[in-house]
């Protein structure tokens, strides 16, 4: 019997070639349909329900319940130090370490725009990177248009060495080795939006208002940046959501039969449907809400093709574990560590007291559509950006992306997360009870 070697999600599988069997595939737009016989017959494995008696329909399993295998190469030169003892594609968070195939040479510095307090740290960092580390520094063009930078003559020679780009116009995805963010959590979200595929490692300094996702202090930035350049850093892989928005557009096209008009009107009107598909990579959450309407939002939520519920309320939040501590937490959801492969569904002010937030496996595909009997349209936003209207017939497909954001840790993924909970959200901060004295224990 002939056997062939195939790779599924980066792993070799030994399979027979006589009969088809569908395996779990990475979420990388690839379908893998090699197979092997199992005890003399073919089995179809699916996340969906099994076909009924007498049905010849085979359900196809397209993803693993654990979500897609994350791509562990980050930008042109960085990758994760592989652990040969890892089970499947899930590594111990403590073993997620940054390494470099080649020494990094280019760095993208993202600064919060229109924040005067960041000008001095920005200048110090850029001088350090260009003059001491001989790095090629990329900066967004609008950052250098700040009058305080334009009028600084001492900063002029350094500024001339910069490479500039414009969002939505210039593609820098293959030119950046790693990223440094100066600001709050919004700078990290913005960095994620610039890279729709592989994201270079991100080092985020806490210079904003909250700083839940920015673990580094700027006081000792020279030593910390040097350690990253040398590859001595831990990583947390923050999963993203791959979102597809399909919008239905109907245009009426007039056709005149035999060139004749009837009562001044064209006859045989025909509707031609056009579909517009846009894709997004989302780090925090996808929010569907009722927008400016005074009516409740009314949207249907499907999981792997099955209708699971209809959301009636102000809206619904679909978030990553990273986003669970953002809008979802404010709406009453639990907080999930970034290393947990999951997607959270959180209603916003639901019209039912029993509608509680739920967590589903990272490998499922969610689909959100406006209910047929909805009184009004809905609105959707992606990490608070690209806000747009959702009409009848439009659909939003959401699943876990195979391109995570490799966020560089100050210490390690576990300690950094709990430190952020305590410092930024004041998690479980309360006044402690006084302990009993010996006499009080006897009385009570």
Description:
Strands 12, 13, 14, 15, 16, 17, 18, 19, 20, 21 and 22 form an eleven-stranded antiparallel sheet that branches. This protein has helices at residues 119-132, 141-144, 147-150, 156-159, 185-194, 221-229, 327-330, 413-424, 438-443, and strands at 3-8, 11-16, 73-74, 78-80, 98-100, 106-111, 136-140, 163-165, 178-183, 202-206, 235-238, 241-253, 270-282, 285-289, 297-303, 306-319, 342-350, 358-361, 366-370, 378-382, 385-390, 395-400, 405-408. The longest helix has 14 residues, at 119-132. With 444 residues, the chain is of the alpha+beta class. GO terms for molecular function: ATP binding; metal ion binding; NAD+ kinase activity. Keywords: ATP-binding, Kinase, Metal-binding, NAD, NADP, Nucleotide-binding, Phosphoprotein, Transferase.
Rg measurement, Å: 26 Å
- Cα(first) to Cα(last) distance is 79 Å
Oligomeric state, counting identical vs distinct chains:
single chain
Q: In terms of structural class, how would the helical and strand content be classed?
A: alpha+beta
Overall mean pLDDT score?
Answer: 81
The description of the largest β-sheet is:
11 strands, antiparallel
How would you sum up the global shape?
globular
Strand content range: 25-35%
**Tally of strands:** 23
Percent of residues in helices: 10-25%
Low-confidence stretches: 1-27, 29-61, 251-273
**Count of helix runs:** 9
GO cellular component, one term: cytosol
Catalytic activity: NAD(+) + ATP = ADP + NADP(+) + H(+)
Family: Belongs to the NAD kinase family.
GO molecular function, one term: metal ion binding
